[in-house]
């Protein structure tokens, strides 16, 4: 994947000295996520929030201390920012990121990186022509629980992976949530439901820890619990290149919901649930016992250890800091955005599987998926009954 | 389903007085299960083990205290038994049970009731013409954990079911196990693998607790971990008549394995794992919160209780006792064998789905499945490399 390099600002040489010690950041999109980022920005070292951008003047008016833009293209070309944090609805991640790259501006994008694989590839291609930093807001990668699980899996301590199972159903959302924003939970506005909005984190972590599957079969509930046209429940079967199998289950219609990740390998199993990581180690290779034991009903002795970690990581602030450090010091990104194509591809493959009622091979045919998505947009008969302006409203932000 | 009735012995009037106070039982099949049953039979009240039957004389020779038969038809017609416990390889359950019914002998059959749905239906039809007792050895129904889970689900305490998930992978079996018996883990000899041999219990409990799904989609690993032609790994997606979804995962290739049953309803979730039942109750209907909350990110307050039970039930002994009490007193059966058709149908539907690469509707087309199974038998090119005589050998018993 992308190896972060010391950036060379290409379109402007202004403020070069300042830039070496400080990143001037603009935030585009002042909805739920964007305003949250703005509120925390003072915690990030060597980062100066200089500009904000939104199409909604009322949102802009809350930030008189920053330069204000109603159009991201103007902010990107203003010379006031070295980097942009993109927090607009998903489809616009692509256009804004490409515009930034073409104008020498570093990009940190909210998840999902893009709505579909072809768009993600367009961003990656535009980025590849630059030396700019391109990060993705996969803040859950800062959580030491997932870091430890990844370490155990990637180090080989768990042995070769046999089976994965992630039940991640603690994404409960109300009817009010879906009513907030005409773009939300539509093919045209968001390009999907729980897979595109809530699960990018989980899909990213899943592939970050276990690698990408080679086949996916999914069943989706379309507006099963909510009055929406997109998926609010997914059950997916996964097959990995080594033959391992997996299951991924998610929904926004369940409470309190479950977050349980189980990974089984030849040397035991790892279960993460209720904030606790339990590692059940076998004292020898399971395959070896299976193949060589003279007993029919052999058991494999195990020991259980809890892998204890402290807290849940620096989350968004740590991600922005990491992005700033990558720009100023060439520090490796915790979540290079080109890796974000994987979670997009997984979400796309699951939807494509459910639409076509068949198993989808990965790599996914990006053009075929884009065409299918556009067909869903074109033939959509869904109309939102009412759009409620809630405090977490993103409806007027880059709709 | 079948309501147990006071039996009327039809073919023989001998020993009627004795029969009113005592059941004379014959065991057919002295392999692993049958010999285990014989060893525990003295714990069953009002049951006299009078005869044993096996085609292997060496096995019979171990039981000089009982009448010995080399052919089940002779035992059934001998007048020495009122009831037969069938513990031979699966295909023969059907022929022996029907023979018993036609000769006025009560039947308690090991699981699975039959290899495929059509055979199970044949047994049910033969039984329907009699007033005999027909029980199935679903001994896990005696486990108070499953009884309590069923009670919570069936009582409505959990609310309408939304999602089920059973990971039951603690069925580890070695190569030695599969090498013990030429019939084992072949289409011809057993008609399946983990679904037909290990999982009948789980499939029975699953439907006993949650009801039958209306659609099934499964992926199977055929001899994935062992040198066998049948399935030793299964991942299945289920859909229930009310729209609830489910997952069932099993394998004999994993150690230590997992046994975790999660059932989610409108009033919370129930999780059974590591011998512990946790019931997380919501303080109101989740659907109601979803539909009426003014908040976008509402949480539903919950309380967690552990449902404590004592031990794991009377298992096989309790099942035989229940069978005897049903014969003598008309006591309801804990596991009427006609209900066993459900677990057979589930196993068949999963295999049929994997064979045909499609989603299978339930009720399953029994004739189509039988034809497909026969096709697998006819075209099998599998040959066992070596048959090892292990202590738990069933190979010579009704092969």
From TrEMBL, chains A, B:
Pfam families: GFO_IDH_MocA, GFO_IDH_MocA_C3. SUPFAM superfamilies: Glyceraldehyde-3-phosphate dehydrogenase-like, C-terminal domain (SSF55347), NAD(P)-binding Rossmann-fold domains (SSF51735). GO terms for molecular function: nucleotide binding. This is Dehydrogenase. Residues 24-134 form the Gfo/Idh/MocA-like oxidoreductase N-terminal domain. It comes from the Bacteria. Residues 146-270 form the GFO/IDH/MocA-like oxidoreductase domain.
């Amino acid at each position: 994947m992308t190896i972060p390099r010391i950036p060379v600002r290409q379109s402007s040489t202004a403020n070069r000295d300042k830039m070496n010690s400080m990143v001037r950041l603009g935030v585009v999109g002042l909805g739920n996520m964007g305003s949250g980022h703005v509120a925390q920005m003072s915690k990030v070292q060597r980062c100066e929030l200089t500009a904000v951008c939104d199409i909604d003047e009322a949102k802009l008016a809350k930030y008189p201390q920053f330069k204000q833009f109603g159009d991201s293209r103007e902010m990107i070309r203003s010379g006031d920012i070295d980097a942009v944090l993109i927090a607009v609805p998903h489809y616009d991640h692509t256009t804004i990121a490409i515009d930034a790259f073409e104008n020498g501006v570093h990009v940190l994008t909210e998840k999902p990186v893009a709505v579909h694989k072809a768009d993600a590839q367009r961003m990656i291609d535009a980025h590849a022509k630059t030396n700019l930093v391109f990060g993705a807001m996969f803040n859950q990668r800062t959580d030491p629980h997932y870091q430890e699980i990844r370490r155990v899996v990637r180090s080989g301590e768990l042995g070769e992976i046999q089976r994965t199972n992630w039940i991640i159903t603690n994404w409960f959302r109300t009817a009010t949530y879906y009513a907030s924003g005409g773009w939300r939970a539509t093919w045209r506005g968001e390009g999907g439901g729980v897979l595109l909005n809530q699960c990018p984190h989980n899909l990213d972590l899943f592939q970050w820890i276990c690698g990408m599957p080679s086949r996916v079969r999914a069943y989706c509930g379309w507006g099963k619990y909510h009055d929406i046209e997109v998926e609010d429940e997914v059950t997916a079967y996964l097959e990995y290149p080594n033959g391992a199998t997996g299951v991924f289950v998610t929904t926004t219609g369940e409470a309190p919901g479950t977050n349980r990740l189980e990974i089984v390998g030849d040397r035991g199993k790892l279960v993460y649930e209720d904030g606790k990581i339990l590692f059940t180690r076998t004292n020898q290779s399971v395959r070896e016992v299976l193949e060589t034991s003279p007993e029919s009903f052999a058991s494999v002795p195990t020991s259980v250890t809890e892998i204890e970690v402290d807290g849940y990581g620096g989350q968004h602030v740590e991600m922005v800091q990491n992005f700033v450090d990558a720009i100023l010091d060439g520090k490796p990104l915790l979540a290079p955005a080109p890796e974000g194509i994987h979670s997009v591809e997984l979400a796309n493959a699951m939807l494509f599987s459910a639409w076509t009622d068949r198993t989808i091979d990965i790599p996914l045919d990006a053009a075929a998926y884009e065409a299918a998505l556009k067909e869903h947009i074109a033939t959509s008969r869904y109309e939102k009954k009412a759009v409620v302006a809630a405090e977490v409203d993103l409806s007027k932000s880059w709709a």
